[in-house]
Amino acid sequence: MTGERTHKPADIEFVNVTKRFGEVLAVDNVSLEIPRGGFFSFLGPSGCGKTTSLRLIAGFEQPTEGEVRIGGQSVVGVPAYKRPVNMVFQHYALFPHMNVFDNIAYGLRQRAPAPDKAAVTRQVGEMLALVRLSGFENRRIWELSGGQQQRVALARALINHPTVLLLDEPLAALDRKLRREMQIELQTLQREVGITFVLVTHDQEEALSMSDTICIMLDGRIVQTGGPTELYDEPVNRFVADFVGKTNFFAGRSVDTAGDGARIETAAGLALAGRYPKDGHKLQNGAEAVIAVRPELVFIAGTASGAPYAAEVQAKARIRNRIYLGEQTEYLVEAEGLGEVLVRAPKHAENVTGGFNPGEQVLIGWRNAAALALENT
Fold it and tell me: What is the value of pTM for the model shown?
């Protein structure tokens, strides 16, 4: 673990874990550690292996090869109900014939021996207070909003004080505004209870906003693991840069690959330079590669005003499209020699320039320090 992460004892470990379903290789020789007491996310496109990895932790699946450990102990062969984990599912899996109190108390009542009535009442009350649903204990499930149902599911999962809470895309059914509110609530809840949360999501914005550590997967393998800032600013290849946020890519073949960066010669004959990411591989001369530049690191200015700062890359461009996003404006431009380039201008800059309209001629560019030289994979 590097970058934003600090070394902590691992709550969960994968040691050379492989999982096959017949001919399908869902998880391919994965080794990882999930630190204790943090918010960890598996992120990736459909079929990348993230949900299977979560199910291996939960005990719903067993590894074909390798070992899964929880709290330092192997759980291979241990059934789900004997593992110190609980899961919140995408559709919550609440019992519709029970009220809120009985849904939350369900796990307690399955213990042997079960706690007495007073203990159940006290612990359910504590959970209701934790998820801010005090007074809702007699409500039926269908009387709750989506966000309230999710809180009930969280309380039911947390009441048994699991070592790890597993979250299987729990916000996918919520609308955008409520999803953002619940992201904040989940972060706050995780800090309050102090246990390890493991989230599976395909939503990169969700993972970036909530997680301490993110594991990006593709085709059953880990591509990169790091903190949100590390993955956004230091992606190791084109896939990560493209999957996490928006990026401009300029493809070509690498030259001058020694040192801290490389130059790329594009098909249009341009020579573009970029630095290597901190954990990325150095390129070989002649290899297929890309220069990657985030849209917010590209300047845009009127042709009369000139570049707002010294930039190694500058090009004349024409505005093709303008999208107002509130805190920023997104422009799609057609730049000479570069093709389509996405630019994001902050609101304070728009207040100075007055913005630009489709069809206008502008000047765009960036510093070499803003660009990354990446493997085109």
Answer: 0.86
